[in-house]
Amino acid sequence: MASFSSAILLAAPYLAPILFPTAWIAFVPLFWAIAHAKNLRGAIFCGWLTGFIAHVVGFHWLVYTINVFGGFSYPVSTIVFLIYAALQGLHIGIFAALLRSIGCGPWQIFPALFWVSIEFLFPLLFPWHLANSQSSFTWFIQTADLMGLYGASFLLMWFNSIVAGVLLKVPPDSKTRWLPAAACMTCIVASLIYGLVRLNQLTAQMDRAAKLRVAAVQGNIGIGMKWDPKEMNANLEAHIKLTQGISGVQLILWPESAIEEWLPENLQALPAKFVDSLQLKDAYFIFGTRSYRGNLKGPDVKAFNTAFLTDSRGVVLGRYHKQVLLAFGEYIPFSWLLGLLPGMPFVEGFTAGDGPRTLDLPSGEKIAPLICYEDLMPELSRSFVRDKQADLLVNLTNDAWYGRTVAPWQHARLAQWRAIETRRSLLRVTNTGVTSLINAKGEMVETLPIFTPAVLKTQLEILHGETFYVRFGDWFAWGITLIAVVIALSHFSRRRFTSTRSSDLKDR
């Protein structure tokens, strides 16, 4: 029951961001369960069960996505999803093992150290973090431009540990009972003050910044129509009609795979007839498509998920290949093995791109194109800004694969951290939603309704410079991980030494 309670409290903010306060006490029931487990194995099971249930509840939509995107039947998709949830639950099982073995330490701070370390190192297919639960708590999450998500995750877990300590462990007559709570609250208040100051600073910077007028086209092409050869022309026409009504912008954007034709990666220009139909009116044009290298029908062909930039005449000015491919969609893990089983599809995957490439406008703006869920990878946005001096982030995606679920909103909320970490405007242009503008403060300021054909016309602030996080990356997470490793090694070394000494004494 305790594991179930923790799982529900943990998953709740990912289903409805307004429930962000539940994350501040989500782990308290689990702390109780770990402390009262009969043995280490029981504690690990409680942690794993919490992680398993949290994934089942929070990411239940993956069954639909695996079915539609991966081509599996619903029964197989359900089994794959449950296996995924079971594996992903291991990270809380590891967390429980460390707590049961080592304890909460001085000032109840060990849980925060262990959590950040595991969160940083444990591989996640859908990269959620504890900090993501606070997406609507704007003041609190501004430290991401210093420490990434991990500073907020650290404080959240420390607060959970403090509450658990006060309720479950610390004797009432302890003279130092409230010192850990005071220290934790001081750090939280400092984080909130920093957030308020930074928000005011950014408001002033954004008011002074140059603006780029853009239009994001949301074509709303359903999964049943996407990639159907009979519907390709109709799908393209839907985007063209929306584009023809656009005026007064400098850049027009279409989402991932908006053009369903295979295009050569070395494409020099779009067909003149197609460009004339768009009526770009001197605007530049970014669109997503599939591209190839080599002979399209030959064995040496390489397929890419690509974003192209053209001028108003259709001349190609740049292109970017997606670097991080999506499991169960653009490639199937161990597909060669699964293909040997009856009824299992074999999917020939895409090829990953060779690095960050900005799409540069002649007027000087450098655009970082993040395709699909690349906007969930902080290292990609960092490399675009740090190495390529990108001053805008653009996400081209097709979240129709998620269906009418909470997943498109989860994707957008997870992506908002890239804007805070880099202090760049992030424009998300999607097939069915959520098409939105997230400003450099992490605020989702404009959004189109999902599953509706529409155009988002807006202005993007052109901001420059590097944040501390862009420059130094995950320094905080690495530092916390080093401390946690030292604590764990020291504990188990002492334990081994004590065990050996006791054995020697018995032999005497």
Summarize the structure in words.
By secondary structure, this protein is of the alpha/beta class. It has helices spanning 2-15, 28-36, 40-58, 62-70, 74-88, 90-102, 110-121, 144-147, 150-169, 179-208, 232-244, 272-278, 335-338, 378-388, 407-422, 468-472, 475-507; strands at residues 210-218, 251-253, 259-264, 284-293, 302-310, 316-321, 359-360, 366-371, 392-397, 426-430, 436-438, 444-447, 454-462. The strands form two sheets. Strands 1, 2, 3, 4, 5, 6 and 13 form a seven-stranded mixed sheet that branches. Strands 7-8-9-10-11-12 form a six-stranded mixed sheet. Strand 9, helix 15 and strand 10 (426-430) form a beta-alpha-beta unit. The longest helix has 33 residues, at 475-507. The chain is globular and about 80 Å long. The protein starts with a helix and ends with a helix. The mean pLDDT is 91.
Number of strands: 13
CATH architecture of the largest domain: 4-Layer Sandwich
Query: How many domain regions?
Result: 2
The number of helical segments is 17
**N- to C-terminal distance:** 48 Å
**Structural class computed from helices and strand pairing:** alpha/beta
Q: Per the principal axes of the C-alpha atoms, what is the gross shape? A: globular
Low-confidence stretches: none
CATH superfamily of the largest domain: Carbon-nitrogen hydrolase
Helix content: 40-55%
- H/E series, N to C? HHHHHHHHHHEHEEHEEEHEEHEHEEEEHH
- The CATH topology of the largest domain is Nitrilase/N-carbamoyl-D-aminoacid amidohydrolase
CATH top level of the largest domain? Alpha Beta
> What percent of residues are in strands?
15-25%
What is the overall pLDDT average? 91
Radius of gyration: 25 Å
